[in-house]
């Protein structure tokens, strides 16, 4: 069954996890610039964590989230979550970026628009059989199966 709130939650989680994946490598780079020696194993561990988080973000935002709601809601929510997480993680927590007032305002406008989209945009279709739709000819051609 479709659930727009669950769809939005999974899309937002995917966006946040994607930013965390980037932050793992950015933190190692910043520590190296500060003079901290990054061992080969530490770098490989960070790279492995980045890969795990990237795959997790992709699964959350591109596989699970669209299963529970319209894809037209997933994209904006995923990107909005990325923008907010980027401001919080890179700006506040890590202190690696400085965001101008214009950047913050633009982010807030995009986030509010994405949050309003479920009210004014597409809705879940209760009578939709996703498995049957995926098995149709055009869908199979589109996915290259």
In short:
With 145 residues, the protein is mostly helical. The protein is 79% helix and 0% strand.
Strand content: under 5%
Poorly predicted tracts of residues: none
Q: How are helices and strands ordered from N to C?
A: HHHHHH
Main sheet? Answer: none
* Radius of gyration, taken over Cα atoms and rounded to an integer in Å: 18 Å
How many domain modules? Answer: 1
Number of strands: 0
Structural class: mainly alpha
Contiguous helical run count: 6
Transmembrane segments: 6-26, 47-68, 74-96
Keywords: Membrane, Transmembrane, Transmembrane helix
Structure description:
By secondary structure, the chain is an all-alpha fold. The protein has 6 helices and no strands. The chain crosses the membrane at residues 6-26, 47-68, 74-96.
Keywords:
145 residues, mainly alpha, 79% helix, membrane, transmembrane helix, transmembrane
Write the layout of secondary structure elements.
Layout lengths: L3 H30 L6 H29 L2 H23 L7 H20 L9 H5 L2 H7 L2
Keywords: Membrane, Transmembrane, Transmembrane helix
């Amino acid at each position: 069954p479709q659930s727009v709130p669950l769809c939005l939650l999974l899309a937002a989680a995917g966006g946040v996890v994607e930013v965390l994946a980037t932050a793992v490598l950015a933190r190692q780079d910043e520590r190296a610039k500060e003079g901290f020696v990054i061992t080969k194993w530490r770098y490989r561990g960070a790279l492995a964590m980045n890969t795990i988080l990237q795959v997790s973000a992709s699964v959350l935002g591109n596989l699970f989230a669209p299963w529970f709601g319209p894809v037209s809601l997933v994209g904006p929510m995923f990107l909005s979550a990325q923008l907010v997480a980027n401001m919080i993680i890179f700006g506040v927590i890590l202190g690696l970026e400085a965001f101008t007032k214009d950047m913050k305002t633009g982010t807030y406008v995009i986030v509010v628009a994405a949050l309003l989209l479920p009210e004014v945009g597409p809705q879940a279709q209760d009578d939709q059989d996703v498995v049957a739709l995926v098995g149709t000819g055009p869908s199979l051609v589109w996915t290259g199966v």
